[in-house]
Write a structure and sequence with these properties.
Structural class: mainly beta
Helix content: under 10%
Shape: elongated
Strand content: 35-45%
């Protein structure tokens, strides 16, 4: 063994067999001892009792994969909710990042999937605790091991859904170079990648590996501009309380209206945002005179023309509508995040003596990413006065002294940009050695640092914007005689607000009439800096307690770990920070200290007896103490928790193996969940309105302007989960090379950390008398505040089956003279239950099979009922060709709605929808590679490779992301469906 703290799965697993550490042959006692992900004990070659999936470097290279995030996406149990394909218009700090998300269980602002590097934690690269897989040197990956569920006893908090363990090749010898290029068949999405790795011995006692990797992705632009399927503009519209051009109301529940008889929710094409147009539009709402509504300005802003508002325009005059004039909802949704990354890595070990090894591991990674988005124009409640100096005369006459609400798409002149830059450093220094013949020990110190800087360009400053919007002629205002000098009205007041100093008036009427000085006054940049440090001291000892009871030695492991994590989120010296349309929240910070002690025991009970070639049980227990201190408030709290696992393997004979496990897993709330502070949303904005249940006949998008407070909560307590797995593995003697496994799983999470949208809190109060203490009522028909910070709420209950099959068939076994071998690998996940219950008094909702929008603020990610991934390969000498296959079946759009395909459908129901199904999709890929030897042994070679994804350019099915407040990101679900289209990668590798 090297000095690594844990030596994971042996090379026998690299053949791609499901959860098989290695083929044991004639006897376990002759197999090399290993440590498998999910346990801390050296095992004698048998697989672990919990389901595991492994992808090795050879497989990923055959597929042309150059990013660790893409490797994890091969696992059907993973839900790629956060990736370079999901940014859209969202100005997030994690734009372009790629997180592991097993079973779709990651909550908003946290993680239930533990990501390890060489079996050790990696410093979190997001304030939610996740690890960005872009920061991992893909060129050095030896394999990726995944254990789904039941890993807290072995590895600690965050492992409720499982562990993704990325093993780097620390034994590498020689030089590896690679350069490659990829892009879509449409010419966008250009991707440049190169890597270099070198490993060599240090005399007879040491080894060093050093490497670096660079990747630049130019990204894919605005969805509706670059893809025809996106230009169709499918979205979800609400058919309730919608306003017609004449001011009357229509809806599914308004008899006699044009849309009466249609369902409440409509999936349809040509989505635009209400009264959103680059010219500027007079909204169809008071106090504007009805004669002046539904008009837009001409290009110069000197006259008004008729404006087609489309249909399904909510009476609040924001949100999506179908058809009419204006820009597509998807005009600002990047399909792929442009980004650049480089990673450097060093590993070295040296035997100080025959029983003592010192080692170190250093990683530095840098990544930049950006996405465009929507720039905030005037709020619907920012009214333009009738004496505004820029108004054309024809509109002034129609207004007849009334003010109006202006709709305006300002993105052309004020383009939004969200940029994130991150630097990560991780260093490990450790000692390991042997005690006698049967025991090994390891102790290490780890330091990690993540520094993330985020810039948001052009965020609207509300007060300044309103001052600049209120433009008057100076002379007319002062003495009634116009002098042509247009200024901000506030600057002419007898005692003007100091913030009006330097005010430049905004001319929002027509195209390109904004001065840069006005933009700079009314729009300012916002910044966020996230600094996070991690210190870990850990030690483990493992070996054999005694020879056992005749079936093999009893193995044991024990250890302890201390971890300290400290973080701060700050926002510079931005003045009046709480008065911005889009900010990144307020400053917050805190410290989390964790002390853990664990023990594990593996007991072989039977070996080589009838009906039990092997029977062994394994048990593990971990005690965790978590202390958190809130830097903003000075609060401190300590929690204690115990996690455990009990598992067993029974090798019956004839290639049959049964396995099972039962575990109690825990997860303490993370940094963002505990400490995050937010600014309440703007009352009356698209994020600051609720549908008050005390107002009869209210529209679905809301009728009560209400500030809503989001963010974390220091009152959160740990989650717990009970995980059960039962499975069978079959390795028939009559078909050498065939391996099959099937495992049933159940994960029951209680006290789940949950983000409830403000509207959901109001609904729970009205329907179930829950969370009413989180609502401030000034009167039954006036909600003045909603506290929507995170809570421990209810339960998640996930059930399903994992299947895996691998088969390698040498062709000489089929016919004489056959060359090469054919390999098949199939992985599938069938998730038949994803039950969520907010409270024992509320109904259970089963989200299984949903492939439409993500609900509840992204606190969980429903999955299709089946996901199939398959790989068919042919190898002959240095040649490989691999056909990949991924299938997503037809799914439910939204399990909380009722469509014509569902029992009980009636268009008069408030949850009715015109189509509640999402079409399935099948994606094929083709990869080829050929090695050209440059030495007689064939160990050194040049390899040419190429790969195509989405071979037949399958367009994604319609599955809009929910529409409504702020619009959808895409007209499909990019978590499951490919939005890039056909694309290729080609390159060259050198092994020397």
């Amino acid at each position: 063994m090297t000095g690594a703290a844990l030596v994971p799965l042996s090379a026998g697993l690299l053949a791609g067999t499901p959860a098989l550490a290695q083929d044991t042959g004639q006897g376990a006692e002759e197999a090399a001892p290993i440590i498998v992900t999910g346990t801390r004990i050296k095992r004698d070659g048998f697989s672990e009792p919990t389901p595991a999936t492994v992808f090795d470097a050879e497989t990923t290279q055959d597929l042309g994969i150059v990013n660790a995030g893409d490797i994890v996406e091969l696992i059907p149990q993973n839900t790629a909710f956060q990736s370079d394909a999901t940014a859209g218009i969202t100005a997030g700090a994690d734009v372009g990042a790629s997180f592991a998300n097993l079973r779709g269980l990651n909550p908003d602002g946290g993680t239930r999937t533990l990501t390890l590097i060489n079996s050790r934690r990696f410093v979190p690269t997001s304030n939610g605790g996740s690890v960005d897989l872009n920061m991992i040197p893909t060129a050095m990956i030896e394999r990726v091991e995944t254990v789904t569920g039941g890993a807290s006893a072995a590895y600690g908090s965050d492992a409720i859904a499982g562990v993704v363990n990325i093993i780097l090749d620390t034994d590498l010898e020689g030089l590896r170079l690679q350069a490659d290029f990829g892009q879509t068949f449409r010419g966008d999405g250009k991707d440049y990648h190169a890597s270099a790795v070198y490993g060599t011995s240090l005399g007879d006692r040491g080894h060093v590996v050093i490497g670096g990797e660079y990747q630049r992705v130019k990204g894919i632009g605005d969805c509706s501009d670059v893809r025809l399927w996106c230009a169709e503009g499918w979205d979800l519209f609400t058919n309730e309380g919608d306003i017609l051009p004449d001011g009357s109301v229509t809806g599914y529940n308004t008899p006699g209206s044009p849309t009466y008889g249609l369902p409440n929710y409509i999936i349809g094409p040509d989505s635009k945002q209400a009264f959103n147009d680059a010219h500027g539009v007079v909204r169809n709402r008071g106090p504007a005179d009805p004669a002046a509504r539904n008009l837009r300005f001409n290009d110069d802003g000197t006259a008004v023309l008729d404006f087609d508002p489309g249909i399904y325009v909510n009476s609040n005059t924001f949100g999506p509508r179908s058809g009419g004039d204006g820009e597509s909802t998807y005009a600002d949704s990047d399909l792929q995040t442009p980004q650049e990354r480089y990673v450097g890595y060093l590993y070295a070990d040296y035997e100080l003596s025959d029983a003592l090894t010192a080692y170190t591991e250093l990683t530095y990674a840098h990544r930049t990413a950006s996405n465009s988005g929507v720039t905030a124009g005037p709020r619907s409640t920012f009214f333009v006065k009738p004496d505004n100096a820029y108004l054309p005369d024809d509109l002034v006459e129609l207004l007849d002294g009334t003010s109006f609400s202006l709709g305006k798409d300002v993105d052309r002149q004020i383009p939004a940009l969200n940029e994130v830059e991150a630097d990560v450093f991780r260093g490990v220094l450790g000692l390991g050695g042997e005690i006698g013949e049967n025991w090994d020990w390891d102790i290490y110190y780890q330091y990690g640092s993540n520094k993330q800087h985020r810039d948001g360009r052009y965020s609207r400053v509300n007060t300044e914007f309103q001052y600049a919007l209120d433009a008057v002629d100076e002379g007319e205002f002062l003495n009634g005689t116009a002098n042509g000098n247009i200024v901000c009205r506030e600057t002419l007041a007898s005692n003007p607000d100091p913030r009006s100093q330097g005010c430049e008036p905004l001319n929002l009427f027509g195209l390109n009439n904004l001065s840069q000085a006005a933009i700079d006054y009314a729009y300012r940049p916002v910044v966020q800096d996230f600094d996070y440090t991690q210190h870990v001291i850990a030690g483990v000892i493992s070996g054999n307690l005694f020879d056992g009871i005749g079936a093999g030695p009893v193995g044991a492991a024990a250890g302890a770990e201390y971890r300290s994590e400290d973080g701060d989120v700050t926002h510079g010296d931005t003045p009046n920070y709480n008065d911005y349309a889009f900010t990144f929240g307020t400053d917050y910070g805190g410290t989390i200290e964790v002390f853990e002690a664990f023990g594990e025991l593996n007991v072989p009970l039977l070996a080589y007896v009838p009906f039990a070639e092997m029977l062994e049980v394994n048990g593990a227990v971990r005690w965790t103490q978590n202390t958190a201190q809130n830097a903003s408030t000075g609060e401190e709290k300590t929690t204690d928790a115990v996690s455990y696992k009990l598992s067993a393997i029974w090798e019956i004979g004839a290639g049959f193996r049964l396995r099972g496990s039962r575990s109690r897993d825990i997860r303490s709330p993370g940094f963002q969940e505990l400490f995050d502070q937010q600014v309440p949303t703007e009352a009356g904005s698209s994020q600051g309105v609720v549908d008050n249940f005390n107002i009869p006949g209210s529209p679905g998008l809301g009728d009560d302007d209400t500030p809503i407070l989001n963010g974390g909560s220091f009152a959160l307590k740990p989650e717990s989960a009970d995980t059960t797995t039962l499975g069978v593995v079959f390795r028939p003697d009559f078909a050498p090379g065939l391996r099959m496994s099937a495992d049933w799983y159940q994960i029951e999470v209680t006290d789940t950390v949950t983000t409830l949208p403000g509207q959901r809190i109001v609904d729970f109060c009205g329907e179930f008398d829950l969370f009413c203490d989180r609502i401030t009522f000034a009167a039954p028909t006036d909600i003045t505040f909603v506290d929507a910070r995170q809570v421990n709420l209810g339960s998640l209950d996930v059930r399903g089956f994992d299947f895996e099959l691998s088969y390698r068939l040498p062709l000489y076994d089929v016919f004489d003279g056959g060359d090469g071998a054919v390999s098949l690998r199939l992985l599938a996940n069938h998730q038949y239950d994803f039950k969520v219950q907010a409270d024992p008094t509320t109904p259970v909702i089963d989200y299984a099979g949903q492939t439409g929008p993500v609900l509840n603020g992204g606190d969980f990610n429903p999955a299709p009922d089946w996901i199939w991934n398959a790989f068919l390969s042919y190898d002959n000498g240095g040649f490989n060709t691999t056909l990949s296959f991924r299938h997503i079946p037809e799914g439910i759009y939204d399990v909380e709605k009722i469509g014509p395909q569902d029992a009980g459908f009636d268009p008069s129901l408030p949850d009715s929808i015109n189509d509640n199904r999402v079409d399935g999709a099948t994606y094929l890929g083709l990869a080829m590679s050929y090695q050209i030897p440059i030495d007689s042994a064939g160990n050194r070679y040049v390899e040419l490779f190429g790969a195509i994804q989405n071979l037949f350019d399958e367009k994604p099915p319609v599955a809009p992301g929910g529409g409504g407040l702020g619009g959808s990101n895409y007209p499909t679900n990019p978590v499951y469906f490919d939005t890039f289209g056909s694309r290729f990668r080609t390159g060259v590798r050198l092994r020397y």
